[in-house]
Design brief:
The chain has 340 residues and is an alpha+beta fold. It is built from eleven helices and nine strands. Strand 1 and strand 2 form a beta hairpin. Helix 5 runs parallel beside helix 9 and helix 6 runs parallel beside helix 10. The radius of gyration is 20 Å and the shape is globular. The mean pLDDT is 91.
Length: 340
C-alpha cells in the first residue's frame, strides 16, 4: 500500500462517513499516514490538505475487544474536553465495523512533541526541560481534580478494591509469562500485597501517564494528553507512582528501555512528589509503595515481551536485550519499597 493509504485505513470510506456525519468538515480528498510509537492501538494522521485529524483504531487482526475499547477512549476524552484537562477535541465515534473493519474514533490533530528519551529532551536545555516536566505534574493534578460524577464518568470504573485487583491482575500476567527463574519478583509481589495502602478518594486515572504520552507545545506546556486506553476510575496515586518511576535513573546504560531522568534540568522525584502533594492536597506518604508497584508492573510487561521474543512471536530493535533488563526493574522495586 502507498504511504497515503496505510493498512487499516480506508480513506474513501472514512471520507464518506465524515461527509454523512459531519457535513462540511472535509473539503477535499483525504490522505493518511500511520503515526509510529503507539503501544498497541493504531494511530493515523489524516488530512484533506487544509485541516488535520487523528484516527484511532485497534490493531489489525485484534481479538481482545476490552483491551482495545474505542468507546472507552472516546468517552473519556469527550468527558474531559470541556474541563481544564488538555485533550484533543473528539469528532466522532464509529462502531460500524463495515467502515474500517473495526470500531474507531476521530479526534482533532494537536501540534506538539512527545519526548520519549533523555536524549530527545536534551536539546531543550535544562530550564525548558525542567518546565516541561513540572507542567506534567501540574496537568496530572488537573486531571485528578476532575469530579467524575460531574463529567458523566461516575460509572467509568470500580474504585473499590482497586489496588488489590491491580496487584492480582499483574500477578496473573507474570504467571502467564513464566519460563525462567526471576530472582526477587515473587518477593516483590508478596511485599506489595502485605503493604497495600488505603486508597484516597477515587479519580479519573490515566493509567500510563508519562512524558511520551503527552504532547509538549512550543511554549513547553502540555497541549494534549494522549493514549487513554488504560484509563479508569481508581486510585490517583498509581499515576503519580508511574510518573515518579519514569523520573528515576534506570542505571542501565544503552538499554532499549529508558527513563527521561538523565536529561539535564530534569527535576528530582522528590520535587515532583512535593509539587503534586502541594497542588493536589493529597497525602503522598505512601508514594514509595506506588512507585514500587510501577517498577513491578513494568517488570511484568518487559518479562512478557521477553517471553514472546523467546518464542519467536515478536521482533523489534533491542528486544533481544529486554530479558536482561527485567531483573533491574525488580531490584528497583524492592529497593524503593524497602526505602519507603
Amino acid at each position: 500500500m502507498s504511504p497515503d493509504h496505510p493498512p487499516g485505513l480506508d480513506l474513501d470510506r472514512l471520507r464518506g462517513l465524515l461527509e454523512r456525519e459531519r457535513p462540511g468538515l472535509v473539503t477535499g480528498p483525504l490522505s493518511g499516514r500511520l503515526i509510529e510509537g503507539g503501544r498497541s492501538n493504531l494511530t493515523y494522521a489524516v488530512s484533506d490538505g487544509t485541516a488535520r485529524w487523528v484516527v484511532r483504531r485497534p490493531p489489525l487482526g485484534h481479538v481482545l475487544a476490552t483491551a482495545h475499547d474505542m468507546r472507552r477512549e472516546h468517552r473519556v476524552i469527550s468527558a474531559l474536553h470541556p474541563t481544564d484537562v488538555p485533550v484533543p477535541r473528539p469528532v466522532l465515534l464509529c462502531e460500524d465495523e463495515e467502515v474500517l473493519g473495526s470500531p474507531f474514533y476521530v479526534m482533532e490533530f494537536v501540534d506538539g512533541t512527545p519526548y520519549r528519551t533523555a536524549e530527545q529532551l536534551a536539546p531543550l536545555g535544562p530550564e525548558r526541560t525542567r518546565g516541561a516536566v513540572l507542567s506534567l505534574v501540574d496537568t496530572l493534578v488537573e486531571l485528578h481534580a476532575v469530579d467524575p460524577g460531574e463529567v458523566g464518568l461516575a460509572d467509568f470504573g470500580r474504585p473499590e478494591g482497586f489496588l488489590d485487583r491491580q496487584l492480582r491482575r499483574w500477578g496473573k500476567q507474570l504467571d502467564a509469562s513464566r519460563n525462567r527463574e526471576l530472582a526477587g519478583v515473587d518477593e516483590l509481589h508478596a511485599a506489595l500485597g502485605r503493604a497495600l495502602p488505603r486508597s484516597p478518594a477515587p479519580a479519573v486515572v490515566h493509567g500510563d501517564y508519562r512524558l511520551d504520552n503527552v504532547l509538549i507545545g512550543a511554549d513547553d506546556t502540555i497541549q494534549a494528553i494522549l493514549d487513554w486506553e488504560m484509563s479508569t476510575l481508581g486510585d490517583p496515586l498509581t499515576d503519580l507512582g508511574l510518573l515518579v518511576m519514569y523520573s528515576m535513573p534506570l542505571g542501565a546504560p544503552g538499554s532499549p528501555v529508558s527513563t527521561t531522568a538523565e536529561a539535564p534540568g530534569h527535576p528530582a522525584p522528590a520535587e515532583l512528589i512535593e509539587r503534586y502533594a502541594a497542588r493536589s492536597g493529597r497525602d503522598v506518604s505512601a508514594v514509595s509503595w506506588y512507585t514500587a508497584f510501577a517498577w513491578f508492573k513494568l517488570a511484568v510487561i518487559l518479562e512478557g515481551i521477553h517471553y514472546r521474543y523467546t518464542l519467536g512471536q515478536t521482533v523489534g530493535r533491542g528486544f533481544d536485550r529486554i530479558g536482561e533488563l527485567v531483573p533491574v526493574f525488580v531490584e528497583h522495586g524492592l529497593t524503593t519499597l524497602q526505602e519507603g
